[in-house]
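Structure tokens please, single chain.
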Amino acid sequence: MAYSASFRTSAEIGRGEASPLIEARDIRLSLGRPPRRVDILHGIDLRVDAGDSVALLGASGSGKSSLLAVLAGLERPSSGSVRVADQDFTALDEDGLAVARRGRIGIEVPAYYLHPHHYGRLKDLLGAALVAEPSNLVHDLKLVKSAAEIALIREAARIADQAMEACVAAFRPNRTELEVAGAVYQTLLTAGSGLPASTINLVSGERLGFSHGAPTLRRIRRGDGGNVELGAAYKRYTATLGRQLSLDPPPARIREIHDIVRAAGDAMIAEIRPGAPAVRPHAAAKRVIAEAGYDRYRIHTSGYGIAPGVPPASGEPLNLFGGSPYTLEAGMMVSVEPPIFIPEERIGARIIDNVLITETGAERLTRWGRELIVINE
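Here you go.
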């Protein structure tokens, strides 16, 4: 299979005679000589204007990489022309192509895997040739999930439900937090989850004021509260789930902040729908918490996009928080988790659900209710 197509972008329609950033005309590429010649590209026409996002889709061996190599000046076409930023690549010799390639360079700056010192050295090395840092380009293209991806996410959510069952069953007097976490991980792995991109957050008793506390050797006692955030990763597609626990009926203070957090999350879910600015669900949660007098203790994002999980995180650039530039679309998956943590009182509450944005609103993916889980033994 090989490409033979004419591409049109949204920018091409209605921009009149504006110069394209990339323009390919009748690109043909053949390798070898008859009778063993392989024709890879057959008359490709392509126009990409500044600001466009274009994805090349096709089966393995259909010519995607070959077309990109031609557009980048790494492979000469057998015929046709390529212009990039008003420069005719097909008219340049090898030295000219080398100069053109190193004259305009963009880098993707990963959130976790590039040390600031190395980033600084790269910027100094590239100098004026560095023209862009489109670090969220691929992430943004993946925000809306396909039907196949959604099926994998649903399976991850099913496994997360099982892991929460194991957590509740293990949250008993004299068990350590680590033992409870061990029960969760055993269930995750035996149910088909891979290792989650983010480790479990699990706190109890006087540690309830920690928003991202790792499990410790602390032993659970009668009357303790607990908070857990766990994640399942099915073929790297992630679903997270968080609940508030109480061994015996909780104090009124814990019940109070839990119910405020639950109302804030419910308000968020009610505002999640296609076309809504990402700041709107956050504003709904913030309003509920602020009206209850706890805005200063809302010390974490209200939610974010959930991606295929690669350590150390499964979050996407889409953030449900003030200043977010994103607009929600059907097929996106986001977490809902507005919290209250009061460190001076050593208490806190957070409920975490993942929701799929549908054509009509939001679908919660796990089956656990959002109430405080009281364990009476």
